[in-house]
Amino acid sequence: MLDHVHNQPSRSTMRLTANALTKRYDEFELSIPDLTVEPGTALGLVGNNGAGKTTFLRLVLDLIRADDGQVRLDGDDVASAFDWKTRTGSYLGPSFLIDFLTPDEYWHFVGQTYDLSEAEVDERLTQFADFYVDEPIGETTKYIRDLSTGNKNKAGLVAALLPAPDLLVFDEPFASLDPRSQIQLKELLQARRGDTTMLVSSHDLGHVTDVSDRIAILEGGEIVRDEPTDPDTLEDLTTYFAEAIRPKETTPADA
Ligand SMILES: Nc1ncnc2c1ncn2[C@@H]1O[C@H](COP(=O)(O)OP(=O)(O)OP(=O)(O)O)[C@@H](O)[C@H]1O
User: Fold this and answer.
1) Residue 114 CA, ligand 1 centroid: distance in Å
2) Is the residue at 105 inside a domain?
3) CATH number of the domain encompassing residue 152
4) Are 221 and 29 in contact (CB under 8 A)?
5) Which domain holds residue 212?
6) Mind listing the pLDDT tens digit for each residue in 51-105?
7) Cα of 200 vs its chain's centroid, Å
8) Which of 92, 145, 218, 234 could staple 51 via S-S, CB 3.0–4.6 A?
9) Nearest-atom index, ligand 1, CA of 64
10) Residue 39, in any domain of the structure
11) Number of folded domains in the chain?
C-alpha cells in the first residue's frame, strides 16, 4: 500500500487478538481466553521456564496449531490467512536460519521473500552495520553454521528487522548477545515502538521492561498478570519472581 503524498509504503501496524486459545501437551495446557494487543503496542512476555511463552509465540506464527480458539492478526485467523506473513518479521532461535548460507546470502534470501530488491536490501542493511560486526555487512564469508551463537542470533535478528514489518515476534532476543549488542538491540527495538506491534519474550526483566509498553506474566500456561509498564515495573517484576522462591514471611497474626 502506498502513501500517495510521500510515495512511500504507508505505515500500518497490526492488531493481535487471541480468543479461547488452547494448546495442550501432555500435562501442560496453554490457555489464553482473551488477549488483545493494540496496533503499535510492544507486549513483553515473561515467565519461568516452561510457562508457555514459546508455545504462544509459535501459535501466533502458525508454527503449531491450536487445539481450540485462534490467533487473529488484523482480524485474519493466522491458521488460514496469508497476508500477515508478508507483514511479520520473527526470530525464535537458530532453527529459523539457513545455515549453509552466509549472513549476506541469508538476508538477501529473506529480502526476496518480502519482495525487496537487491538494492533495497543493501540499503536497509546499512542500519545494522554497527550491530552485526562479526564481518562487514556486504562482505560476509563465514557460513551461518560456523558463527558463534551470539552472531547467529544477530544474523537472525537482522533478518527479522530487515523488512520493517508491521509485527515483530522475538523469543529471547537478548540471549547470547554481548552487552554492547544487547544495548544496540534495545535501541533498534525502541526506535520501532509505536510503529510496530511487537511480542518480545525474555528472561531479562530489565531489557524486556525497557522495550515494552505492557508486560504479561505467564505462569503454568496462563497469563496471571498483564499491566502497562511504568517506572516501578522492573522492581515489581523482580519482587514477583523473588517471592516465588522466598514466599512472604508469615507474621504471628497470620498464623
Ligand atoms: N513439541 C512439544 N511436545 C511436548 N511438549 C511440549 C512441546 N513444546 C512445548 N512443550 C511443553 O510445553 C510447555 C511450555 O513450553 P514452552 O517452550 O512454551 O515454555 P517457555 O515459557 O517458552 O519456556 P522457556 O523459558 O524454558 O523457553 C513445557 O512443559 C514444554 O515441555
Assistant:
1) 30
2) yes
3) 3.40.50.300
4) yes
5) 13-231
6) 999 999 999 999 999 999 999 999 999 999 999 999 999 999 999 999 999 999 9
7) 4
8) 218
9) 1
10) yes
11) 1
